[in-house]
Specification:
The complex is a heterodimer of chains A (about 1000) and B (about 500). By secondary structure, chain A is mainly beta. Chain A has ten helices and 50 strands. Chain A is globular, with a radius of gyration of 31 Å. Chain B is globular and about 75 Å long. Helices cover about 45% and strands about 10% of the residues of chain B. Chain B contains 19 helices and eleven strands. The chains are: A mainly beta (about 1000), B mainly alpha (about 500). Chains A and B meet through strand 22, strand 23, strand 26, strand 27 and strand 28 of A and helix 1, helix 2, helix 5, helix 6 and helix 8 of B.
Chain lengths: ~1000, ~500
């Protein structure tokens, strides 16, 4: 058989080659007649192909009678059979929300019409056009159902919530699948290398990633080369960052008067002579600067019908707004594909990234609290301080911090794809992710005053490295029977392993010269430790999509997962989904109407999971090494190590599951000028929580991690987009999306005491209970201000209450004011969040805007509520302040007491922010310089915000239980930049 | 074509076989975490680790530092909250004013710290017994030490909370009887009986301090158990037992003990584990961490400026958060000429034993007994874990227990002579009291100044039945019939789903 086929091929090949002709053609936009550049032209028989050039022209060797497919992003593809005529013209129809678009759905692709779940897509260019580090930030406001909350800290990745908060413990972020590598951190990916980002939002879309999908899946596909001429693309921008908003603080005199008054109430002498004060120190100004941001990216791509390549290199530098801190990342990518035979393809996607970071403490809390009467430095050059309050001089703190970290990360895959038959693809891939992190922290000797000093220098060195791999093998079957029955099946198997190793060492008395910052340079004892972890998973997965006559779709996924996170008996979990879709617009009765160009109804239900990785959850008989040793026999003898059993484990721990429904309607109207979707979802997570057990059980931290809470998220997503081309020279688009989400803790088993949101001053402000959203603020309700001592005596009050203090409502009427009188005052989770975007192209000019906002959430102004005495105040705090002379004052009296958590500090978190404004100009007729296109642009990221909140920023990431509390957030910054895109 | 097919097929098959099909792929060994298994009990060195956990609990923050000082010291008339007025240390203002509630963190921490200690002792008693190759004598000694410490933890708990759950075995949260036990409050009298039994058991086995090897200093001794039992007997008003045990301690029946000549040196590094010491927590600096967590830091002088004798410039002495400061009332309680006043209280302007002069600070007075010298004592720059042993029980206390028990038993001459031993060391003349009632008051007064800032006073006042009178005279809010015990922490009641009953007056 083998020999015969060989002979057959050798015999036929020459004839086949001889019969080929040179076809050439042009590809145009059907509406405008403009050339479509970069369209793929593929011979279906061989898979050979080329792409159109900037004039929309291509040429290819082919035989008459062969089928040729033309496709381009944003257009409906078409397939034609070649005739004798070698001059061709193809007119492609632009698609907006077209149901024939190809969508990446995890371990494969499908037409949008076939997707029964909720999948949102953002094209890479939308992300690359923003001055942001990661794609997670780049999709903010663009996808309904996806809430992105970020700080402005350089090098940080934002918090992402897909359709609400489900997991209570640990990380509620989605997983990211970068070319097959499952990761939680995508800061290593250069945004210019990204082709597209897909967000799988509901169980029926996620179930193929079953065990990892509980909090959503974000699939990132990087660019690959296309056969044809080499393309070189150069993108660069540079700009600066500034704080978006500031808080007006009291001047020195106001502060001094307030402090004197507070001391006066304690019968203490005044701390300040108001007549001698002059200068006011603006600490916030001193600890911020205009930070430079830069990005340079060069990529080269191309290939032949046998080999394609994409090579990209980039350098990203972000200095942030805190002087001395910066983040620099270099990333290098090489994506190749080798078609060894018509039926065999090999390939690789490899990414190398390195970052270096100078870490500085987020000193905004110190800058907020430090007295304005203190100069950054005294006249003699020494750092300013006051013994009145125990706050570090933030300028000194920045200067004295020497903390550098770096990372090397290698990520990627190699794969083989075999297509023995047209309808069957076998794919095997090895995907890996290695990162190696180093950090060096040096604390010098300094003595500013007794409240801010370090007597002995200290050096800490840390290393952490992780190696992760996932081996994935799957088969995809795709065939249409009898022209009506389309079967799309996927069956696969994967195994993954993650190995962490880390060590750290510290030593004292290391000299101040940076070249001597090594553990060998200190005094004799290195305090060293190391640790590690191994996590393994094995999974089998399958999916079947059945399409009848392109109209009726049934789809189901089934996945079985094992994870080493759980005890041996509970390691496996089964996850599934099923759903259906009806493409109404394909029906005969829809063919004679003009209103809907596309219309699809979908519904699905499924169960997905999360192998919540709490350390040592599976070790039921863990021996706890105690943190302390014991010094029997004094210093002459080595200290004795101690261990005991003090961790109770839940032997029933297994997968955290989320079950949910998604129903959606997708439509295109007015010749697809208007497109949109409406979706309803309702899902419940059976979540892990730390169940509090009595100390008498013998559990040292009183916590047993157990699956004991049901958290529900339900909501509605709406998306509408309008785009139109008025003339050849002018087109515009406008769109928006909005998500309403309601989070509720439906049920809790046993005793749940999820109090959190510590302010660091002994007060906590959130409480998670049945019937309320996760992480609800839990505070006393203020009821005006006490006017007189008699007024206090006659009402329930807090010990030590004085006239001018807040009166609190005695909710339970027991005559006492205590924690039992606290009320739920909203949560950090917005009632709805939304994005608005639009733009136009006119001749060479392009303009776009993009807004993001949320509403109905609350913020706890924690920084204002943390007062240890004599702290700086906001300017507004001293306006209309209660005093004996101003008994009607609306602000409570000056006081140095730590404030009780109350509704006074709960503020509205609603805001609308201009996310991005971009104005670009593409210079015409650059071919004479051998430049295909040349565009200059100016862009502003976060230039404007409308907010009610009085603090630095209403965007306050945190974990499920303590988000929305502003203590020392690195605020979202405004970025202004200029850039250029050049294509050769 | 088949040739090409074969390569990926092999790759796929091997990948599957090599990875997931290998046995144990989903059960990798736990990294950096020991698991109990067949080999756990083969090396007898492991037994020493179980016992050490009974001791290391004494170094924990919630056992010996902030919360314990709040519960046992700031509540009393000896100490004030201290620190800055606005810095409440969580709830130390409530501890000071005696306005705390079931949700006050100090109280819940003190509960947790001591019950964690109980649990570690129960684990040690069970697990030490499982080492087949461990020397029987050592096994007995280890178990006796664990019983001594279990008694110590229960003595704290019963004094704080009265009736409490009696956990005398390793608990299994899946067993209904253990769940019941964890939430059932046992009368205080039964707790005392349990403590007595543990201490008797310990006394029968433990070596005396003179028999103890140098490498074992810090382990509980026969004297530790006898001394603690004397104090427990005092609280139980078992005068004869208290008298006999304290007398035995003073006459060498349980080891070599006595009052050191210079009161001030007791808390200096040179005074560690002296003949004065009946039991003390060993706190060591360096690597690995064996220090009492922040015991000295929370009490260190706050926002203080120093000079040093013979130096004109400022000096850089040990500072801290400034909580648990001596009260003016305590300062005034010393008789003129009492050496203990300046050995207990640092006043602004004082020159300390290491030549440090306190120029200014946030509070007028600080606890000298927790002071660490950076100049003449071991110090490694870590302010949180210092080389300061915590003296939990010492002969000054035992001698006064002897005096009080003797007085109650009508052995007046012994009462006076024991009282005067303590007074003499303090540089004071003999007591003028002679009647039983006067002597009682004199001994109580002496206990206060002798044991000031040693977390004894608050419980002593309750024991003496005069806490309300003494404390309320200073403006505190001690309610007789309520504040003799602290509230059961609400978090613990909630964790038992309300089965544990609150102390009266705290609902």
């Amino acid at each position: 058989m083998k020999r015969f086929s060989f002979i057959l091929i050798t015999l036929i090949l020459p004839f086949w080659v001889l019969a080929q002709r040179q076809y050439s053609g042009s590809i145009q936009d059907s509406a405008t007649g403009h050339p479509v550049a970069g369209a793929s032209v593929t011979l279906l028989s061989s898979g050979h192909g080329t792409i159109s050039d900037s004039a929309g022209l291509f040429s290819i060797q082919a035989n008459p009678g062969e089928n040729i497919a033309i496709s381009s992003i944003g257009y409906s593809g078409m397939t034609v059979t070649l005739a004798e005529n070698t001059q061709l013209t193809f007119r492609l129809k632009a698609t907006t929300g077209n149901l024939d678009d190809v969508v990446i759905i995890g371990y494969g692709t499908a037409r949008r019409s076939q997707v029964v779940g909720s999948v949102a897509e953002v094209k890479g260019d939308k992300i690359a056009s923003q001055p942001v580090l990661s794609a997670a930030q780049g999709i903010q406001g663009m996808v309904p159902g996806v809430q992105v909350t970020a700080s402005g800290a350089p090098g940080s990745q934002p918090q992402v919530r897909v359709r609400g908060v489900g997991s209570v413990l640990g990380n509620a972020n989605p997983i990211y699948v970068v070319d097959g590598v499952i990761t939680s951190d995508i800061t290593n990916i250069n945004n210019n290398d990204i082709a597209s980002v897909q967000v799988l939002k509901d169980a029926s879309a996620q179930a193929i990633y079953g065990s990892r999908a509980g909090n959503g899946v974000v699939i990132i596909t990087t660019k690959s080369g296309k056969a044809g001429k080499m393309r070189i693309s150069l993108n660069a921008y540079t700009g600066f960052k500034t704080p978006t908003s500031t808080v007006k603080m009291a001047d020195a005199k106001t502060y001094a008067a307030f402090t004197n008054a507070a001391l006066g109430y304690e019968n203490k002498p005044p701390a300040f002579d108001l007549d001698t004060l002059s200068a006011t120190t603006d600490w916030f100004d001193l600890v911020t600067h205009k930070g430079l941001i830069q990005n340079y990216d060069l990529n080269i791509s191309g290939g032949s019908d046998k080999v394609t390549y994409y090579i990209g290199g980039s350098l990203f530098k972000d200095a942030g707004i805190i002087p001395g801190s910066d983040y620099t990342r270099a990333a290098f990518r090489i994506n190749n594909e080798y078609r060894l035979a018509p039926f065999l393809k090999l390939g690789n996607n490899l990414n190398i990234s390195i970052y270096n970071q100078n870490n500085k403490p987020t000193v905004f809390d110190d800058a907020y609290r430090m007295a304005p009467t203190v100069p950054a430095r005294f006249d003699d050059g020494s750092y300013g301080f006051t013994s009145l309050l125990n706050v570090a001089n933030p300028v000194a703190k920045l200067d004295l911090t020497h903390d550098k970290s770096n990372q090397l990360r290698l990520q990627g895959n190699v794969f083989a794809e075999l297509t023995p038959f047209k309808y069957l693809t076998l794919r095997s891939s090895y995907n890996f992710d290695y990162n190696n992190n180093n950090q060096k922290i040096y604390v010098p000797v300094y003595h500013i005053w007794s409240g801010m000093k370090n007597d002995i220098s200290n050096l800490t060195q840390k290393n952490a490295n992780t190696f992760y791999y996932i081996i994935d093998n799957n088969a995809t079957f795709n065939k249409t029977f009898g022209g009506l029955h389309e079967i799309n099946a996927t069956l696969g198997y994967s195994s993954e392993k993650n190995r962490d190793n880390s060590w750290n060492g510290s030593i004292q008395n290391v000299p101040a010269d940076p070249n001597l910052w090594y553990l060998s340079q200190g005094d004799n004892n290195v305090d060293a430790s190391s640790t590690g972890a191994i996590l393994t998973r094995a999974s089998a997965y399958s999916r079947l999509i059945y399409t009848y006559n392109r109209r009726y779709i049934l789809s189901g996924s089934l996945r079985r997962d094992g994870s080493s996170s759980f005890p041996t008996e509970n390691q496996y979990g089964t996850f599934y989904s099923f759903g259906g879709a009806w493409v109404i617009s394909e029906e005969a009765f829809m063919q004679n109407q003009q209103l809907f160009s596309s219309l699809k109804l979908r519904a699905g239900y499924g169960k997905v999971g999360n192998d919540i990785t709490i350390a040592n959850l599976r070790i039921l008989n863990e021996i706890s090494l105690q943190s302390k040793y014991y010094g029997f026999g004094g210093t002459d003898y080595p200290a004795q190590q101690a261990w005991t059993f003090d961790q109770i484990k839940d032997a029933a721990v297994s997968w955290e599951t989320t079950k949910g429904t998604d129903i959606g309607l997708e439509f295109g109207m007015a010749k697809n000028k208007l497109s949109g979707s409406v979706a309803y979802y309702n899902k419940q997570t059976h979540a892990y929580i730390p169940v509090t057990v009595p100390t008498t059980f013998g559990d040292a931290d009183r916590k047993v991690y157990s699956q004991a809470a049901d958290v529900r998220n339900k909501g509605v997503e709406i998306e509408l987009n309008w785009s139109d081309r008025i003339t050849d020279a002018f087109s515009y688009h406008f769109g928006g999306n909005m998500t309403f989400n309601k989070n509720n803790v439906d049920h809790v088993d046993g005793s749940l005491q999820l109090k959190d949101g510590s302010l660091g001053n002994g007060e906590i402000v959130t409480y998670t209970v049945e019937g309320q959203p996760i992480g609800s603020f839990w505070v006393l309700q203020t009821d005006g201000i006490y006017g007189t001592a008699a007024d206090i005596e006659s009402t329930p009050h807090i010990e030590g209450a004085a006239p001018g203090d807040f009166k609190y409502v005695d909710q339970n009427g027991d005559g006492l004011i205590n924690d039992k009188d606290r009320i739920f005052a909203g949560s950090y989770q917005p009632k709805f969040y939304y994005g608005i975007n639009g733009g136009f192209n006119w001749k060479g000019l392009d303009f776009s805007f993009d807004l993001y906002g949320n509403a109905g959430n609350k913020i706890y102004n924690g920084k204002k509520a943390v007062r240890f005495g004599n702290d700086q105040i906001e300017a507004a705090r001293a306006v209309d302040i209660w005093s004996v002379d101003n008994p009607g004052g609306t602000q409570p009296r000056a006081s140095n007491a730590i404030p009780k958590p109350s509704t006074y500090y709960v503020e509205s978190g609603s805001f609308l922010r201009v996310n991005n404004l971009t104005l670009g100009y593409t210079i015409a007729n650059t071919e004479r310089w051998h430049i295909q296109s040349l565009r200059f642009f100016a862009s502003a990221q976060n230039p404007l915000i409308w907010k009610k909140y009085s603090g630095y920023t209403p965007e306050l990431p945190g974990n499920a239980l303590n988000s929305g509390i502003e203590l020392s957030i690195y605020p979202v910054t405004a970025t202004y930049m200029l850039g250029v895109n050049v294509n050769f | 074509m088949k040739k090409y097919l074969i390569i990926p097929a092999i790759v796929i098959i091997t990948a599957v076989i090599l990875t997931a099909c290998s046995k144990g792929y989903l059960n990798p060994p736990a990294q950096a975490t020991p698991e109990q298994n067949d080999s756990t009990y083969t090396d007898p060195a492991g037994a020493a680790k179980f016992v050490a956990a009974c001791y290391t609990n004494l170094l924990q923050w919630n056992q010996s530092a902030f919360s314990w000082l709040g519960v046992a010291s700031i509540t009393s008339d000896d100490a004030d909250k201290g620190s800055d007025p606005g810095d409440l240390g969580g709830d130390k203002d409530q501890m000071d004013a005696i306005t705390y509630s079931a949700t006050s963190g100090s109280i819940s921490d003190a509960w947790t710290g001591n019950y964690n200690g109980v649990s570690n002792c129960n684990q040690a008693i069970l697990n030490v017994g499982l080492y087949p190759t461990l020397d029987q004598g050592l096994k007995n000694r280890y178990i006796a030490e664990a019983k001594f410490l279990r008694a110590y933890y229960y003595f704290n708990l019963v004094r704080m909370f009265g009736d409490i759950p009696l956990i005398d075995t390793v608990m299994d949260s899946d067993k209904p009887e253990d769940v019941t036990k964890a939430s059932t409050r046992v009368p205080a009298v039964d707790i005392y009986a349990f403590i007595e039994k543990d201490l008797h058991d310990a006394m029968a086995v433990l070596p005396t301090n003179t028999q103890q090897a140098a490498k074992d200093v810090g382990h509980a001794t026969k004297g530790s158990a006898a001394g603690l039992l004397a104090k427990v007997s005092l609280y139980e008003k078992k005068w004869q037992e208290a008298f006999d045990l304290s007398k035995g301690m003073m006459t060498g029946a349980y080891g070599t003990y006595g009052l050191v000549p210079d009161y001030g040196t007791i808390w200096r590094e040179t005074g560690e584990n002296s003949m004065e010491s009946v039991f003390e927590v060993q706190s060591k600096i360096g690597v690995p961490d064996a220090g009492a967590q922040q015991y000295t830091a929370v009490q260190g002088m706050r926002a203080a400026a120093f000079k040093r004798v013979g130096n004109s410039g400022s000096a850089n002495a040990y500072t801290g958060w400034g909580f648990n400061v001596p009260s003016a009332n305590l300062d005034a309680a010393y008789e003129p000429g009492d050496k203990r006043r300046k050995a207990t209280i640092i006043h602004i302007g004082d020159t300390l034993f290491d030549g440090v002069i306190l120029i200014s600070a946030a509070n007028p007075m600080y606890n000298y007994k927790s002071y660490v010298s950076k100049f003449v004592e071991s110090y490694d720059g870590d302010d949180d874990n210092t080389n300061k042993n915590i003296r939990l029980l010492r002969m000054g206390d035992i001698v006064l227990i002897n005096a009080e028990a003797a007085n109650e038993l009508g052995i007046t001459a012994t009462a006076i002579s024991s009282l005067n031993m303590v007074r003499k060391r303090a540089g004071l003349s003999g007591t003028g009291a002679s009647s039983q009632a006067d002597l009682r008051m004199a001994i109580w007064k002496e206990r206060r100044v002798e044991l000031a800032m040693e977390c004894d006073r608050f419980f002593d006042l309750i024991r003496q039945g005069r806490a309300a009178a003494v404390l309320n005279a200073l403006g505190k809010h001690f309610t007789a019939g309520k504040n003799e015990v602290f509230p059961i922490p609400q978090v613990e009641i909630d964790a038992t789903e309300g089965k544990m009953i609150q102390n009266p007056g705290y609902n």
